[in-house]
Amino acid sequence: MNHYLTYQTERLILRQTTLDDAAFIFELMNTPKWTQFIGNRNIRNIKDAEAYIQNVILAGIKKNGYGNFTVSRKSDNLKIGCCGLYDREGVDGIDIGFAFLPQYEKLGYAFEGAFKIKEIGVVNFGLKQISAITNPENIGSQKLLEKLGLNYVEEISLPTSKEPLLLYKWKANWHEEAII
């Protein structure tokens, strides 16, 4: 299994996250929106970020063949966010997720990256269903999931938390249009 898969869109490079991304992951996971909407992962320094990448991100990629991608702009190779496919406990099906640094929100990068991740899931991994969870207060995420073709299903909570989350799903047979 190649742990360094890379994909491109018109403006972005999506590369599987590695230990080289520790400083960026530290910055991203400590943004106000990450801690509010995704949760505090107790990443307090670069060493914590390296451990998280090793024990969670890389372990997930090794186990599942997919996982987290660091998203950079082609124009300057600046790391601006992440998108990925995750096998999350408590979520039926493979979960699509995304997060971007605040200064790169509302510029279309999240849609562009997440759309590519959805395409990778369908074409490369043969997914017939993609799920997503989001905080009920995260309106931007809900709108992006709907733009990606996911539909709201129900409110759930994960086994590790009783916080309510909104579950969205996309299924290949839900639409008469093309798979992607």
List keywords for this structure.
180 residues; alpha+beta; Aminopeptidase; 8-stranded mixed beta sheet; 8 strands; disordered C terminus
In percent terms, what proportion of residues is strand? 25-35%
Poorly predicted tracts of residues: 175-180
CATH class designation: Alpha Beta
CATH architecture: 3-Layer(aba) Sandwich
Roughly what percent helix?
25-40%
Number of strands: 8
Largest sheet: 8 strands, mixed
When the domains are counted, the total is 1
Main-sheet strand order equals 1-2-3-4-5-6-8-7
The topology string of helices and strands comes to EEHHHEEEHEHEE
Distance between the termini: 25 Å
SS element count, helices: 5
**Could you tell me the mean pLDDT?**
92
* Structural classification: alpha+beta
The CATH H-level homologous superfamily: Gcn5-related N-acetyltransferase (GNAT)
Cα-atom Rg, whole angstroms? 15 Å
At the fold tier of CATH, the topology name is Aminopeptidase
Quick rundown:
This protein has helices spanning 22-29, 32-38, 46-64, 109-123, 139-147, and strands spanning 6-8, 12-16, 68-73, 79-86, 94-100, 129-134, 151-156, 165-171. With 180 residues, it is an alpha+beta fold. It has an eight-stranded mixed beta sheet with strand order 1-2-3-4-5-6-8-7, sandwiched between helices.
Describe this structure as you would to a colleague.
The protein has 180 residues and is α+β, with helices and mostly antiparallel strands. It has one domain (6-174): Gcn5-related N-acetyltransferase (GNAT) (Aminopeptidase). 32% of the residues lie in helices and 27% in strands. The protein is globular. Mean pLDDT is 92; it is low at 175-180.
